[in-house]
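quick one, two chains, predict together pls
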Amino acid sequence: MYEGAVQDLIDELGRLPGVGPKGAQRIAFHLLQADPQDVERLSDVLLAVKEKVRYCERCFNVAESQLCRVCADQRRDQSAICVVEEPKDVVAIERTREFRGTYHVLGGAISPIDGIGPGDLRFTELMTRLASGEVTEVIIATDPNLEGEATAAYLSRFLKGMDLKVTRLASGLPVGGDLEYADEVTLGRAFEGRTLVHV
Amino acid sequence: MHVRHLTLADFRSYPRADLPLEPGITTLVGLNGQGKTNLVEAIGYVATLSSHRVATDAPLVRFGAGQSIVRAAVVRDGRESVVELELNPGRANRARLNKSPLTRPRDVLGTLRTVLFAPEDLALVKGDPGERRRFLDDLLVARQPRWAGVRADHDKLLKQRGALLKSAQPVLRKGRSRRRVPDGLDEVSERESALHTLEVWNAQLAQVAAPLIYARLRLVRDLGPHLASTYDEVSAGQSDARITYRASLRDEFAARLAAGEVPEIEEIHAELLASYDAMRAQEIERGQNLVGPHRDDLLLTLGELPAKGYASHGESWSFALGLKLAAYHLLRTDLRDDPVLILDDVFAELDSGRRERLAALVADCEQVLITAAVPEDVPESLRGRSVRIRLGEIEEVGSDE
């Protein structure tokens, strides 16, 4: 146990995801020895992130104004919506530069163990967006794990009756990988979703 | 295959242990509480990533130590692989195969295959259905390691669906209240939304439960003939030992399965979905998953009577032993390779006739590891090489040959 403020700092850091007691201690002492300006900058952004950042009114991505950068961009294709679990998934897909449509962030996946049901996710808001009739394609990009698949299944049931093209991201082999190192589930999925070269 | 060397660090009672092993029969002799079973438990752990004695890893780590390490050199067809496991209670375990780290410890399954028979196995006959399901599922994994993944997914899905049944119970029971729910701009009752979610989990669960039932049915079908002959050999032809799969599905379908039929996965899948529907009211009432592989059982019969409750103590022993030996023979034919056979403290419980017959039955196995408190309990023909264990010290006594 350290005295007063140092221990408080270690305790707070230790509550962050991915930071254990040892790591918290290391960061705390790093901050203690750092230049005051550096620490000030850090404390400023910490406060700013809570003050300024909010959620996009349309897609619930993180934003600094009413709409996020994607939704505010007029050049984006408004007819396609990619549905993801978290804002960080938006960033991941944006990095590919493959997708020119807009997003919808659900805010998680259905997981009864964690007490998360459909009512806790932003399905209603998605339906409202679809009701406008502008959208023609929905791409379901939830995580390929049990909860993500359940969420995708739930969503696809709702979309069934609508006049929409509904797709799900393919799962399969990692690029640059070796077949022999792929696990059976991935390889099995890759087989299921194999693409036609020619007939 | 056989284990050529076993090294332990902070495993159970051993701060360190080095045990060189050879093909053929090795008997570990020592008084009670000296650490014989700990050694074979470690070998079993390398093969199955679980202990036959405890459900969690914590008791496996020596008291006061933070982690334990089990390393086994396994020889198959003249090629040696080294499996190293690091047990970290409370954190993820780690595994290395031939010195390279594996992303998932599960990937070492299949490197070493063992069939372990221990006093605890009496529970196969006398215990709860869970014991028999575990026997079947462990054997599935030993046959084809990919079932470990299916099993893990199935467990997770059961937990999710169970949590849903519990949490949605008040809503599903009456379902009058109205609330904003996702269905376009219309309002739907909360009950309908909950039912919708339940159907989603039904579909997810059925997708792994159906293959699991299918695989178990095939296993039971393949295991049956082996059991008939091993039980017959152990007990010298007293009565017929049979196994029947008892499914928690609807009666008519369950009867077909009990009769030995193995339907296609698609048909089992459809039946599961229908069973969920049929049992819905009850499942909601109790807030539990009531249908599926986790409620199934394996019925063991001797002649016309169920073994549980009717078989004598000796017969129960023979049945449990017969099941394990049948598993051994099944794996042996499947893999065209002998698993390592481990007989932990078994001979003390058998009469002399059964001892001799068991000895004859295992004499041609590639590697057999036997533990015994009293060396005289082990039939002469099986003594082989003897290793004496005393207070965690391993000492070679020498071979009888």
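Residues 120-338 of chain B form a domain with the Glutathione S-transferase Yfyf (Class Pi); Chain A, domain 2 fold (CATH 1.20.1050.90).
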